[in-house]
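Sequence in, structure out. First:
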Amino acid sequence: MNRRALKTRETILDTASRLFLQFGINSVGVDTIVAQAGIAKMTLYNHFKSKDELVTEFLEREHMKIISGMEQCLAGTRNLPPANQLLAVFENFEAQIRRPEFRGCAFINSTAELSESDHPGHEVIQRHVATVHRHFLELAVKAGSPQPEILAQSLMFLIHGATASRCMTNNPNVGQMARETARLIIQENLGCRI
């Protein structure tokens, strides 16, 4: 793909991502994306065969962005004990959901919106959840958790619940409460103070 085509594809994806995050997948039609991107409808279909393909690419991009951020956070804390690394993930999460423009989790929102069980976006959603879970589980094992799966799942539930709570209440302090709740869960599971 040449540079111009790549730039056009990125413009379409940037526009669709912004609109999907702000208004939801089902509320944003191809005509809106085309108008906002300033392109012809045929141009969109030259880059994406269908809206489903565009949605799947949007989810893939969100997955890469979130996992990259999580891995950077963990790389920056690799000299800390694993329990503190787990907590650092929640410190990073707190900063993300405190942003005024925060509109929820692309994966939670998409799960609710993609009613067709065979939509290709579901595979990206499942892979995303499994990747985050794997990071939590690996750290729980490294921390010496007697019940690493329970610790990893508890932290997953906390992230999902805090994300939903932030959207439902518009309370910017939800992330701080989630971080402190994570601290309590980690301490209880590991039998230590962090």
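Second:
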Amino acid sequence: MPKRPVIFHRRFFINGKVNYIGSNIIMNWLAQIETELRRIQPGKNPGRTRTIARRVAGFALQQFYQSFTEDFLTLLKQAALDSSLPNDVQHSAQRLSERLSSDFQSPSIDPIGDAKIIVEFVKRTHDKENRK
């Protein structure tokens, strides 16, 4: 008979689903990112693409900072100011966190590319920590 997961008292909500925090019970952050990336419709609604990119980067930064906040914009701003991060990660976070210009142009030419830079950095960091 398979072991039943232990339910921890700490919980939080992501996309309307309850997630329990513990050693083995948490919705896989990489799965959350993949779910968001599947929502992209190339060539349509750049505002939605930018929002998805912010969410993708936010899920990765939650993992990196071990944060339970769902305020992804705050996490992006924190990463943009974090001098311990590589420059490309900082710059990507900066572009994703900035407001649109007065003519509604995004500072990020490729928001998904910027989000993927952040995700790849967090994956590498996460992998190194898990190997220890």
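Remark: Helices lie at 29-38, 46-65, 72-81, 87-97, 111-131.
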